[in-house]
Amino acid sequence: MEDTHAIFPTAEVTRRTVIETGTTALLLSSLPRGALASGTGHVDPLPTSIALRVNSHLHNLTLDPRTTLLDALREHLAFTGSKKGCDHGQCGACTVLVEGRRINSCLTLAVMHDGHSITTVEGLASGEELHPMQAAFVEHDGFQCGYCTSGQICSAVGMLAESREGVPSYVTADLTQLAAELSDDEIRERMSGNICRCAAYPNIVAAIRQAMGEQT
């Protein structure tokens, strides 16, 4: 643990002052008078160098450590397929695969994924050949405005991988039959973190069902 006196040399830190004032109040009281009002009490963190392997290509970045993975992908690497919808982890439009696992990229910091392998919707296809999930979404018209589609597709790919590994969902009725074909209720539950404001849900379920038996 860092020496508080080294950071706040004017603070008299004792067990009693911590109990009486609370840690936050103690640290704020140690700042020079007027620091908060003038802005002199604010110190930006130093930029951090990281390496992200995005869609099989290594990218070296120097970022503010507060940069989200979503902003690193979109603003620094121009992978704009991942969308910023709610920016609160509630809509799923920013879903990407990190080491094969689906995550909301707006809720995680880029520096937390130094050295990790990341797949965005741009990295699913093989050249001109669409990924089976992408092809199924096209065939079943699993989108309307298309804003949520990249997150839906990445989430569906990750969801089927979870199912193959035996990960149950809230509606899984028989834990001994996890490898069986997913029902529509299972698909809906497992995809519930991805919102389609155009309400193309029946088509999305149909697309996932078609892709289910293919390599995803």
From TrEMBL:
Which Gene3D superfamilies does this one have? 3.10.20.30, [2Fe-2S]-binding domain
Q: Which PROSITE patterns match?
A: 2FE2S_FER_1 (PS00197), 2FE2S_FER_2 (PS51085)
The keyword Transcription regulation belongs to this UniProt entry's keyword annotation: no
A Pfam family found in this protein is Fer2_2
Q: Which residues form the 2Fe-2S ferredoxin-type domain?
A: 48-124
Named from the GO MF annotations, one term is: oxidoreductase activity, acting on the aldehyde or oxo group of donors
**Database matches in SUPFAM superfamilies:** 2Fe-2S ferredoxin-like, CO dehydrogenase ISP C-domain like
Which UniProt keywords are present, listed alphabetically? Answer: 2Fe-2S, Iron, Iron-sulfur, Metal-binding, Oxidoreductase
Q: Specify the protein name.
A: 2Fe-2S iron-sulfur cluster binding domain-containing protein
In which organism is this protein found?
Bradyrhizobium rifense
